[in-house]
Amino acid sequence: MKIFILLLIPFTLLFAQDTTKSEAFKRDLPKGRSSLHQPKYPSYPLLTGFVIQQEANNGDPFAQHEFGIRLLFGNGFQPDTTKAIFWIQKAASQNISAARFNLAIMYYNEIGVDWNPFSAYKNFQFAAESGMPEAQFAYGIFFTENLVVNKDLAQAYKWFKKAADKDYEPAIESLEYLKELGYDLIDEKEFKDDDSQYVLEKSQISSLIQQDWSFDYFDFGEDTLSSEKEKEIVENLLTENKDELKRKLGVSDLRNTETIEDTSSLGIINFAAETGSPEALFFTATASEMGIVTKRNIVDAAYKYLRAYRLGSQKAALRLLQIVKDRNIFQTLKSEVDDNNADAMYTWAGLIALGFDNSLSDMQAYELLERAAKQNHINSIIEIGLSYYSGTLVKEDRQKAIEYWMRAADLGSKEAEVRIAFANISLEKDDYSDEINILRINANQGSVLAQTALAYCYENGIGVRARKSMAARLYRQAASRGNVTAFNSLKRMYDELRPGEEEFNIY
Questions:
Q1: d(CA 101, CA 40)
Q2: Burial, 70: exposed, middle or buried (Cβ in 10 Å; 0-12, 13-18, 19+)?
Q3: To bridge 478 with a disulfide, which of 205, 482, 486, 507 should be the other Cys (CB 3.0-4.6 Å)?
């Protein structure tokens, strides 16, 4: 049994990594209070707070909604989230579309209520069926994944189309994406809405919603691109707008002047790869495999695909599988190892751990890591630390594991910093602020491990106030970058809240 594989997978935050292929499209729902649909009734803004409160108490649902929003934002009243929720819920109970939409936002973003995507779904559904384009788009999003309800891109198309017909820009963009996937075969008769309620409300409401939508696509399936098309994509990435490039690499929050010496596209890619971006590692591996920007080097490609796989990239695992189908790779690796190439030592040890080669034993593979570590090979040092941390092939010694990671960190490894921080978080202590700061910095610099670890901290209230919505968002971001562990953690969070109704059963 290849127990050595434990050394080469990322820490799983107490959850086993599931290698089952799954796929989900996600244009995430609006984030935070800025996304709330704020009412602008012709008369109410001119009224005194006393009159609005009086009208709300008299049962006017529009006044109740207005009063709730004002309490939430502190507009003319002392901010009071608890009271705000009470009045918005009162308005929602009378089926005011904007109130139902806002209540959905609050459930999804954990504003004054517990995080509950299923309650959000129900409220978005009502507002969508009332004809509200923002809600139609948000409701459609739920059909693009297998988290709340079963994935149904035909339904997603239907609701995006309804919102797009009202000139809602995010829906128009997503509709184009679905059309590229081949979903453009819906009977147009389905798009005739009964918008009477929303039209009536709209005469009293103007939207101040701020668009804050992030586009993610979870794709853990097989690649379908031809090698020529893939080469074109890699070459185009080098000429990408730098802000868009950073978004694709998961380093959108990175400030070039503070951390990157080389601010060229290639410099950003290399920086992201070394800070733990699986996208950047996959790109550099593909470049080595195809001889783009650099000389073709199959060993370097395998080395970088292996590192990307360790960070949860299933596509990288598939590319490794393609490489090892040519058995000459192992002869090449042996030759490179004989020449004392530490990258080759690490790669060969990893392929043995994955069961791709049985010419050496697990212990011989471990000895390859030790040889590489003597050359200060950072990733080999980290793997040896993992071996001591888990007690695989050596006696468990977590202090020794941390010593190895500290050595790797001293050599410049960001991954080692993250592993030390997470190991410390697992200990009982009074103050985790240093560890949380390390995770935040590394998450912003592209580390998917830091992103997933930070999500775990928010989920469990370790070093930060427990916030399920923030945990879900961070897991989602990591999952959208190919990390299956994060996707499974996200799905587990949904399953823990899943109601018993048939519509929420995932098949």
A1: 15
A2: buried
A3: 486
207, 134 in Cβ contact below 8 A? yes
CA distance linking residue 482 with residue 468, whole number of Å:
21
Packing angle, helices 117-129 and 484-497, rounded to 10: 80
- For domain 37-207, the question of CATH label 3.40.50.720 is answered with no
Of 54-68, 236-250, 433-447, minimum mean pLDDT range: 236-250
CA–CA distance from 335 to each of 329, 339, 342, 385 (Å)? Answer: 10, 6, 12, 27
The maximal CA–CA distance of the chain, rounded, in angstroms, is 85
DSSP structure string for 196-242: HHHHHHHTT----PPP---EEEEE-S-----HHHHHHHHHHHTTS-H
Is the CB of residue 91 less than 8 Å from the CB of residue 99?
Answer: yes
Read off the DSSP letter of residue 335.
Answer: H
How far, in Å, CA of 259 to CA of 238, rounded?
Answer: 20
Q: Average pLDDT in the 205-210 region?
A: 35
Report how far residue 317's alpha carbon sits from residue 314's, in angstroms, rounded to the nearest whole number: 5
State residue 313's pLDDT score: 83
Q: Are 82 and 112 in contact (CB under 8 A)?
A: yes
For residue 325, give Cα distances in angstroms to 8, 261, 262, 328, 357: 20, 39, 37, 9, 11
- DSSP, collapsed to helix, strand or coil, labels residue 16 as coil
CA dist 63 and 47 (Å) reads 10
pTM for this prediction: 0.79
**pLDDT of 44 higher than 90:** no
Task: Of 308, 307, 303, give the one whose Cα is nearest residue 329.
Answer: 303
- How far is 205 from 228, CA to CA, in rounded Å? 52
Collapsing DSSP to helix, strand or coil, 313 comes out as strand
**CA R_g for the chain:** 26
Both tokens of residue 17?
């990594």
Fold that domain 3-22+220-500 belongs to in CATH: 1.25.40
Per-residue burial over 164-198, b = 16 or more CB atoms within 10 Å of its CB, e = otherwise: bbbebebbbebbeebeeeebeeeeeeeeebebebb
Give the Å distances, CA to CA, from 362 to 4, 7, 324: 6, 11, 18
Compute CA distances 395 → 5, 176, 328, 398, whole Å: 16, 55, 35, 10
Rounded CA gap, 155 and 121, in Å?
Answer: 14
Q: Rounded distance, CA 128 to CA 122, Å?
A: 10
Q: Would you place residue 501 in the very low, low, confident or very high pLDDT band (cuts 50, 70, 90)?
A: very high
CATH 1.25.40.10 maps onto the chain at 37-207
